[in-house]
């Protein structure tokens, strides 16, 4: 998935993310779902044979997920998680899985934090070269998984005290706002950051009436 820098994307990914919380409502991991465009799907699956049912071999898809996640390690899985101005270190991903449906390849994985982090926490997921455009899809682009909190520790009203706000950008407006020097300076190697949506997770303090 590593690719050279480009002025515009050549691969498109539709993305959904789930924030996983522990019983103290700290962020423990992000569950990330990427659905690739049809053209990249055809490229990625080229050479993989289908069985008699017209399905790809699950073992081959599992190996594809493993290879992609291994390659993405050098790029922090395109994922940057922050508490304030400090970037948080992720642990190795788990539960990697590739699947194929309706002509599109999907990659699912869970990216844990090395240490659970109290909110507010923000995260941006992007290819720094902008060769790959990663955009949230609707509805429900980002959700929250409370784990056992919802049934054991907190009432439904209390669980609603966590929320995620997403600040998305219009690519055309971003292009028009960037000076020409941006594309020839050192910043060009991190062009994707200029287009990345920022998601912020915030939870009210446990046991308070704050919203």
Describe the structure.
There is one protein chain. About 20% of the residues lie in helices and about 35% in strands. The chain is α+β, with helices and mostly antiparallel strands. It has one domain (about 10-205). The strands form two sheets. Strands 1, 2, 5, 6, 8 and 9 form a six-stranded mixed beta sheet that branches. Strands 4-3-7-11-10 form a five-stranded antiparallel beta sheet, with no helix packed on it. The longest helix has 15 residues, at about 60-70.
Layout of helices and strands, plus pairs?
Blueprint: E1 11-21, E2 27-36, H1 38-44, H2 58-72, E3 79-83, E4 86-87, E5 94-101, E6 104-117, E7 121-125, E8 132-136, E9 142-145, H3 149-153, H4 156-159, E10 162-167, H5 171-177, E11 198-203
Parallel strand pairs: 1-8, 1-9
Antiparallel strand pairs: 1-2, 2-6, 3-4, 3-7, 5-6, 7-11, 10-11
Question: Can you summarize this structure?
Answer:
With 211 residues, this protein is an alpha+beta fold.
Count of helix runs: 5
Backbone structural class: alpha+beta
* Beta content: 35-45%
Distance between the first and last residues' Cα: 41 Å
The level of helicity is: 10-25%
Give the total of domains. Answer: 1
The count of strands amounts to 11
Order of helices and strands: EEHHEEEEEEEHHEHE
On the 0 to 100 scale, the average pLDDT is 85
Low-confidence stretches: 2-6
- Give me the Rg, rounded: 19 Å
Report the major sheet.
6 strands, mixed
Shape: globular
């Amino acid at each position: 998935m590593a690719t050279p820098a480009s002025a515009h994307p050549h691969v498109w990914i539709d993305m959904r993310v789930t924030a996983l919380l522990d019983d103290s409502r700290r962020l423990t991991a992000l569950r990330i779902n990427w659905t690739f465009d049809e053209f990249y799907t055809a490229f990625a699956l080229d050479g993989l044979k289908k069985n008699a049912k017209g399905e790809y071999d699950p073992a081959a898809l599992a190996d594809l997920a493993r290879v992609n996640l291994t390659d993405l390690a050098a790029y922090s899985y395109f994922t940057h998680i922050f508490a304030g101005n400090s970037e948080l270190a992720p642990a190795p991903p788990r539960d990697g899985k590739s699947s194929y449906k309706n002509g599109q390849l999907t990659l699912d994985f869970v990216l844990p934090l090395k240490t659970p982090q109290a909110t507010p926490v923000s995260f941006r997921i992007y290819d720094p070269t902008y060769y790959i455009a990663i955009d949230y899809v609707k509805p429900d682009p980002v959700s929250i998984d409370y784990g056992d909190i919802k049934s054991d520790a907190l009432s439904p009203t209390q669980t609603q005290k966590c929320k995620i706000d997403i600040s998305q950008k219009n690519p055309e407006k971003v292009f028009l706002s960037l000076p020409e020097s941006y594309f020839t300076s050192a910043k060009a190697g991190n062009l994707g950051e200029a287009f990345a949506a920022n998601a912020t997770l915030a939870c009210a303090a446990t046991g308070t009436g704050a919203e």
